[in-house]
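Hi everyone, sorry if this is the wrong subforum. Our group has a chain we'd like a structural model of before ordering constructs, and none of us has done structure prediction before. Sequence below.
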Amino acid sequence: AGEDGLIKLWDVETGQCQKVLRGHLSAVQAIAFCREPLCSDTTEETTPYLASASSDGTVKLWNLATGMCVCTWEGHRSRVWGLAVHPQGRAIATASFDHTVRIWTCDQDNSIAVLTDHTHWTWGVAFSPDGQKLATASGDHTLKIWDTNTWSCLETLEGHTSWVQSVCFSPDNRWLVSGSVDTTVKVWDLQTYRCDKTLEGHTNWIYAVAFAADGQTIISSCQDETVKIWDAKTGRCLRSLKTDRLYEGMDLTGATGLSDSQKLALNRLGAMV
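Answer:
Right subforum, don't worry. Here is the predicted structure as tokens:
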């Protein structure tokens, strides 16, 4: 998914583009595969679906067998930044710069719930693996935990000192990990709703966090161009990954005829200008 509003499906073995989904009018900010059928547009239980959220303010659901959009939801008043699908296919949650989180189902044209407790942009959303809780991350520096049966707020988690952009539950539903513009990753105990540990080492905005499938490690990605792997139990950084930039180490010092913007672009690609 990209700034051009297109969603492309790729064959992971051949690297070939298999299908292009067209319909969004602006950048696609989030996508998620749906493990369970969400719509009755087909009698095939194994039909795969994909949900997408866009800066055009809409949320779409796609039938991947046909490549057709089967649902378009409108209701957010600004760009939609985050998206999560309920593990049993009950609903889709979306986070928006309009400060709200909305809950959608295929049998309703409008959102079935609007969560309005945040006071700034909402960035990240995540359902717990058992489907009983929803976590939301916001520019108001907080995370909130919601009951998915009543859509009431169970708890507000405070501790970050800047925007919280990403959130993820552990596979056993016990822990929550969050990443923030304050450069830290925090691990929260969902039995006490307290911060258990703070992982420090990144030097810029943290864009995404995730637990590994076995729950033993945490992965974080950052604007400092690194991906870090952490021990979920101890909080120790196990490894820091960084790829070479396109022109890493190329020395263009003294090159003439370059504009300031060209020099900046080359510098960001690794060239010394």
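For your construct planning: Residues 260-268 form the longest helix (9 residues). The CA atoms of residues 115 and 233 lie 32 Å apart.
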